[in-house]
């Protein structure tokens, strides 16, 4: 058995999130990221089905520029392990054979057999893209299902001022999801970065319908996040940019530590504007002898 670290990308639009779906969901045509990975790796003709454990569980509709997983591949006594490049090539051909053009294995490397891609992650970076100046239904095609369109022009300075209040260690109970299964998670998180910057529409130079639009990128960095925490933080920052709330309200909401305190005029940002950009590790933990 050889354990590998996998790095992969996907567009989450047609996935039911990361975990494997139930038989009922599969019968209805749904699949999760882990379903796709396991099916593609099965085509390597291993001695046993692969065990794949994804480090970061993105929600349905959320994208990833780099998510990670550790995978245990059992070759059998009479077979040599595949070279990493060969694994990447074969798995990506499998995705295409499966009709999946929305997921790619970008890199794979052998790691120690005790390595855990989830628990040994040092940090995660998320990006949220907001396009202001048009209704969501009129987003240019390159931005459709890849950003959140809002008709109002947003006050970026107010949003940047508000973002500073998130930095450091706080209790994010107000920004956690309401589902009971998430209540056992520690709400105290340390935000290493919360940045808001101007960006460009995809293919802006060539798309005449992008020229009057403004794109904002919201960057969030922490070791870990609560379920939907980034989308709730984004919704609040956009509400501040719309003038519905003030930057100082962030301090009040963090101090409240109540899910019910989250303002009703700050909707949770939709999934399709969110990207997992990176999962960081200590290089020493990845060294395979």
From TrEMBL:
Catalyzed reaction equations: uridine(38/39/40) in tRNA = pseudouridine(38/39/40) in tRNA
Domain of life: Eukaryota
Gene Ontology biological process terms in this record: tRNA pseudouridine synthesis
EC number: 5.4.99.12
Record carries keyword Isomerase: yes
Active site (catalytic residues): 59 (nucleophile)
InterPro entries (UniProt xref): PsdUridine_synth_cat_dom_sf, PsdUridine_synth_TruA, PsdUridine_synth_TruA_a/b_dom, PsdUridine_synth_TruA_C, TruA/RsuA/RluB/E/F_N
Record's keyword terms, sorted: Isomerase, tRNA processing
One Pfam match: PseudoU_synth_1
MF term (GO), any: tRNA pseudouridine(38-40) synthase activity
Residue ranges occupied by any Pseudouridine synthase I TruA alpha/beta domain in the UniProt entry: 162-282
Family: Belongs to the tRNA pseudouridine synthase TruA family.
Name of this chain's protein: tRNA pseudouridine synthase
Organism of derivation: Branchiostoma belcheri (Amphioxus)
């Amino acid at each position: 058995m050889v354990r590998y670290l996998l790095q992969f990308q996907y567009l989450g639009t047609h996935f039911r999130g990361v975990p494997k779906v139930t038989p009922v969901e599969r019968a209805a045509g749904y699949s999760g990221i882990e379903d796709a990975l396991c099916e593609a790796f099965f085509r390597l003709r291993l001695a046993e089905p692969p065990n794949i454990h994804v480090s970061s569980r993105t929600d349905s509709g959320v994208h990833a520029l780099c998510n990670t997983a550790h995978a245990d591949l059992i070759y059998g006594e009479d077979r040599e392990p595949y070279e990493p490049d060969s694994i990447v090539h074969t798995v990506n051909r499998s995705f295409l054979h499966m009709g999946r053009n929305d997921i790619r294995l970008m890199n794979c490397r052998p790691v120690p057999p005790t390595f855990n891609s989830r628990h040994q992650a040092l940090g995660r970076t998320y990006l949220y893209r907001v396009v202001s100046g048009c209704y969501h239904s009129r987003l240019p095609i390159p931005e459709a299902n890849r950003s959140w369109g809002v008709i109002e022009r947003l006050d970026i300075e107010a949003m940047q001022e508000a973002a500073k209040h998130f930095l450091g260690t706080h209790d994010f109970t107000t920004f956690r999801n309401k589902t009971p299964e998430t209540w056992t998670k520690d709400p105290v998180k340390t935000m290493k970065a919360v940045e808001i910057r101007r960006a460009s529409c995809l293919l802006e130079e060539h798309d005449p319908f992008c020229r009057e639009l403004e794109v904002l990128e919201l960057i969030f960095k922490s070791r870990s996040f609560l379920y939907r925490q980034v989308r709730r933080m984004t919704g609040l920052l956009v509400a501040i940019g719309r003038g519905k709330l003030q930057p100082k309200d962030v301090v009040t909401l963090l101090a409240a530590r109540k899910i019910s305190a989250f303002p009703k005029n700050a909707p949770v940002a939709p999934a399709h504007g969110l990207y997992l950009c990176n999962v960081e590790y200590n290089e020493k933990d990845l060294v395979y002898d």
